[in-house]
């Protein structure tokens, strides 16, 4: 289904027309990043875990300041998914970083890292 400016996207807001040329130009501007998927580890619910999670969060703030962790999204919905992050580093570097994470080292978290592409300068709306 093609939508033009002014058309109602099914069940959504009105959408602006996006040309093939615009898409090709924008896709050409993408950059490689890494996505981290943080999951509950075997010791996620052990006694005293709050202190470990606090230090994990402290490290995330430092990684944000260093522009390595570009986006961090904690997830607290009771599932085994604990968070998602987008890192401004390659897979191997991100694995090194995550292997040094206090929560990972303590078995509170496990993680997956996946390569991705996105648009430099994108940000979450305020």
Number of helices: 4
Distance between the termini: 31 Å
Mean pLDDT: 90
Give me the CATH fold name of the domain at 31-118: Alpha-Beta Plaits
Number of strands: 4
Largest sheet: spatial strand order: 2-3-1-4
* Class by alpha and beta content: alpha+beta
User: Into which percent range does the helicity of residues fall?
Assistant: 25-40%
Order of helices and strands: HEHEEHHE
Largest sheet: 4 strands, antiparallel
CATH architecture of the domain at 31-118: 2-Layer Sandwich
Classified by CATH, the class of the domain at 31-118 is Alpha Beta
Low-confidence stretches: 1-6
Q: Any idea what the shape is?
A: elongated
**What fraction strand?**
25-35%
Cα gyration radius (Å): 18 Å
CATH superfamily assignment of the domain at 31-118? Dimeric alpha+beta barrel
Describe the structure.
The protein has 126 residues and is an alpha+beta fold. The protein has a domain of 88 residues: Alpha-Beta Plaits (2-Layer Sandwich). It has four helices and four strands, in the order αβαββααβ. A four-stranded antiparallel sheet has the order 2-3-1-4. Strand 2 and strand 3 form a beta hairpin. The longest helix has 17 residues. It starts with 19 loop residues before the first helix and ends in an 8-residue tail after the last strand. The N terminus is likely disordered.
Distinctive features:
4 strands; alpha+beta; 4-stranded antiparallel sheet; Alpha-Beta Plaits; 126 residues; 4 helices
Summary of the model, kept short:
The protein is an alpha+beta fold. 31% of the residues lie in helices and 26% in strands.
């Amino acid at each position: 289904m093609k939508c033009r400016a002014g058309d109602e996207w099914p069940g959504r807001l009105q959408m602006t027309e996006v040309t093939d040329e615009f898409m090709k130009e924008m896709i050409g501007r993408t950059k490689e990043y890494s996505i981290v998927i943080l999951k509950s580890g075997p010791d996620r619910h052990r006694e005293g875990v709050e202190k470990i999670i606090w230090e994990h969060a402290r490290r995330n703030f430092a990684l944000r300041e260093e522009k390595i962790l570009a986006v961090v999204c904690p997830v607290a919905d009771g599932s085994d998914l604990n968070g998602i992050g987008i890192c401004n580093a390659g897979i191997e570097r991100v694995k090194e970083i995550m292997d040094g994470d206090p929560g990972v080292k303590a078995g509170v978290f496990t993680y997956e890292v996946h390569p991705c592409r996105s648009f430099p300068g994108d940000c979450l709306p305020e």
